[in-house]
Design brief:
With 766 residues, the protein is mainly β. The chain is 1% helix and 47% strand.
């Protein structure tokens, strides 16, 4: 079937296959919000915000389909499974349609509507799929499009407004001999489904006015829901009548096997012919009902909730089985931090320029050894003040000790996945700030944080004169006045990133005041600002800073990148404090690296390579000196669900690189690891190297600056390098000249001090 499908697609205009990245990437999406449900082939299909999960009715197995598998990562608006063609159709708010075939690893992206220039971008949403005689009628915000499931290509498009204008169609149904459409503002419209001229708007007649959210039929009866939540019944013999008025919004309107299912915010009900109620649920014993989709078949309700995934409930009961893949609380990660084997995620909802309002009340998530633990907001702090958690820092000396900055409420301390205390003005010497001209308390606007070598953790507090805060290892706070550097701290909206140099200098990126640098030994401050001689930053808004393995400070602003090569000399008299551009050759022309880019985070891996997150251009992976872009990841060439990447975290032990995007969390299985203390656990992979392999062999478990030599069995040297981190890569060539032949190759490793050596073997099979 796959070969036939591929041949057919050669003729499908506006279609292409997306790539499967499961070998090198992993997705960590939230599935708690279920927007639409379909069923077929003994499985239930549930559409979360931008990913899909399936539930096997026979085995109860749950599987997921996300951007790593090939989905776009955009916001899903509708799904439908065709049993006749074994195809899952996924519709998106932006007009994209994706087709997933059973047993096929490929996802077909259908971009005809997405790329249609004559349809405004805000009128392309896919609202509903209805299958009839091999065609799917697609209800959209501009009208109805017809898609041939056998040929996998579009047919006609119907603009059914009164004068042929575009009209929002929320649902369609076919009750022979008519096709019906529920529209916004254009009433209920119908036409003869076998009419060959349905593209003529005059063939469509209005049988009822107003705006309507859905339409379904049971045999000869047609039902629709008006925007005032009234349910109407229509037959040719009885005409139109109101059969029920709901007091709350009807969220979903579906039909399966001649059972009409109506889902409101807090109820779900099933009706048979004649609008006879078969079952109704208004409460559950273990879950609060907050619904947005619903489905029913074989005497079972499937409830799509906003925060609890999908619930399966037998008719005439109130006991639910939760069906929910493992994942974080939300698909909007804001800050992440990693230590070997774990990742913490916060979801603070503030603007780029540090406006926290309206306050967000989100929990936090912890991935540990492959499983998620989610802590809801209600369990973070009894007072409910741990809002807008914008930064997370794991104690490098104790991975169970975690600190989170609340950009309104203080500092949340978590111990071994248990919230321990919210540190604020009530239990410490921290002080809230009153903004001049505003009687309201601005709260404790904590943001950037970092541990120093003595085990103290430093924080930045915006709007405060004592804007640098150090929590000592004995839990006491020491506060540092920053007015020598920032005259009016109430003009500074956020001290957003904080890093500490080898010398102990505390460096803080700010929203309005460039890069703030503090020397704890002398109490001195200096600042790097715009313009040459003053710091040479491209902008005074510094969102990201990071020290590399050579103590160079990489500075990311909202308008480009700079590097300070002499951090240790910043406080020397007459020192040149200017940070420098990285100049690269692009097509033989000198250009500034990452010029004009809005940089949100910079991380350094075990090989001293740089990972740079941007607000709209994805992720750049740079060589140690920045002269080479090793890779660039965007949503077009990778599983990134968005090019807006808020934060990056690296597991130094495994080399995995996590990306927190505005549309979800994904990870790249990197190969650069942190250096080990000894050579006891050196290994190479893949090993053996099998025929057809074209990648690199990773030699992992190295110490810093270890010498690595690879020879053939006769002692001929084919590769030599010095490790910067805990791993090196070998491209299986002899110094890049030619691929080595089949055989056993010896890996000879010596530590930097020559006190420890080890030998490993790699088998190459051509």
């Amino acid at each position: 079937m796959k070969k036939v499908l591929t041949v057919l697609l050669l003729f499908a205009i506006g279609s292409c296959f997306s790539q499967n990245f499961e070998d090198t990437w992993k997705g960590f999406f939230s599935y708690v919000s279920v927007k639409d449900i379909s069923q077929g082939d003994d499985r239930v299909y549930a559409a979360a915000e931008n990913a899909v999960f399936t539930y096997d009715l026979s085995t109860q197995e749950i599987n997921t389909i996300d951007s790593v598998r090939g989905l776009s990562g955009e916001d899903i608006s509708s799904i439908y499974y065709s049993e006749d063609f074994n195809l899952l159709l996924i519709g998106y708010e932006n007009g994209l349609i994706e087709v997933v075939q059973d047993g096929d690893d490929d996802v077909l992206q259908v971009v005809d509507i997405l790329d249609k220039l004559t349809i405004p971008p805000n009128r392309k949403q896919i609202n509903h799929f209805f299958e009839y005689e091999g065609n799917v009628y697609i209800a959209t915000d501009f009208g109805i499009s017809v898609y041939d499931l056998a040929a996998l290509e579009f047919g006609d498009t119907y603009f059914i407004g009164a004068s042929g204008e575009q009209l929002v169609v929320n649902q369609t149904t076919v009750a022979p001999p008519y096709i019906y459409a529920a529209t916004e503002g254009g009433g209920i419209r119908r036409a003869l489904v076998e009419n060959d001229n349905l593209i003529d708007f005059a063939q469509w007649s209005q049988i009822f006015g107003g705006s309507h959210r859905g339409i379904q039929h049971i045999e000869e009866e047609v039902f629709w829901v008006r925007d005032n939540n009234a349910i109407y019944r229509f037959t040719e013999t009885d005409g139109i009548s109101v059969v029920e008025n709901f007091s709350e919004r009807v969220q979903d309107f579906s039909e399966q096997d001649n059972v009409l299912v109506i889902t409101t915010t807090s109820s779900i009900q099933a009706y048979t012919s004649g609008y006879v109620q078969q079952s109704r649920i208004t409460s559950l014993s273990n879950f609060d009902l907050n619904l947005q989709s619903g489905f029913a078949f074989n005497g079972l309700f499937y409830l799509g909730t906003r925060t609890s995934g999908m619930l399966q409930v037998p008719f005439s009961t109130n006991t639910a089985t939760q069906i929910l893949p493992d994942g974080p609380i939300l698909n909007t990660p804001f800050s992440i931090d990693s230590s070997p084997g774990q990742l913490w995620v916060t979801f603070g909802d503030i603007t780029q320029f540090a406006d926290p309002f309206p306050l967000s009340e989100f929990g936090v998530s912890n991935l540990r050894e492959g499983s998620w633990t989610n802590i809801p907001f209600s369990q973070l702090d009894p007072s409910g003040q741990a809002t807008d958690l914008v930064n997370v820092t794991i104690n490098p000396n104790d991975p169970n000790d975690v600190y989170m900055s609340s950009f309104i409420g203080g500092i949340l301390k978590i111990n071994d996945q248990t919230p321990e205390i919210l540190i604020d003005e009530n239990n410490s010497n921290l002080e809230t700030v009153i903004v001049e001209g505003n009687s309201e308390d601005a709260g404790l606007r904590m943001y950037g944080s970092e541990f120093d070598r003595e085990g103290n953790i430093w924080f930045g507090q915006a709007l405060a004169e004592e804007g640098l805060v150090k929590r000592l290892s004995n839990s006491q706070f020491e506060k540092i006045d920053i007015t020598d550097a920032i005259t009016n701290p109430q003009d500074e909206l956020g001290l957003v990133d904080l890093k500490i140099s080898r010398e102990g200098f505390v460096c803080v990126g700010t929203i309005n005041n460039g890069l703030l640098v503090y020397n704890p030994s002398t109490g001195e401050f200096t600042r790097l600002l715009e313009e040459e001689g003053n710091g040479n930053l491209p902008r005074n808004t510094v969102r990201a800073i990071e020290f590399d393995l050579q103590n160079r400070l990489w500075i990311g602003t909202t308008f480009g990148l700079r590097v300070s090569f002499n951090v240790g000399g910043l406080f020397e008299e007459g020192a040149d404090i200017d940070a420098q551009e990285i100049i690269i050759l692009q097509d033989g022309i000198p250009r500034e690296l990452l010029a004009d880019q809005n940089i949100l985070d910079i991380e350094v891996d075990g090989s001293n390579n740089k990972w740079v997150a941007t607000a709209d251009a994805g992720v750049f992976y740079l060589s140690p000196n920045g002269q080479e872009t090793l890779q660039r990841f965007t949503k077009d060439n990778s599983p990134l669900p968005s090019n807006n990447v808020q934060d990056i975290a690296i597991d130094d032990f495994s080399g995995r690189v996590y990306f927190a995007t505005v549309n979800g969390l994904v990870a790249f299985e990197g190969t650069s690891t942190a250096p080990r203390d000894n050579l006891e656990n050196v290994y190479a992979y893949p090993n053996p190297v099998r025929p057809g392999f074209t990648g690199n062999v990773t030699i992992d478990g190295l110490t810093a600056n270890a010498n690595v030599k690879i020879t053939d069995i006769e002692g001929n040297l084919v590769f030599e390098t010095t490790s910067e981190g805990g791993s090196v890569l070998w491209d299986t060539t002899a110094f890049g000249k030619y691929k080595v032949a089949s055989g056993v190759y010896l890996v000879l490793i010596t530590t930097d001090d020559a006190l420890e050596t080890t030998v490993s073997k790699i088998m190459v099979v051509r």
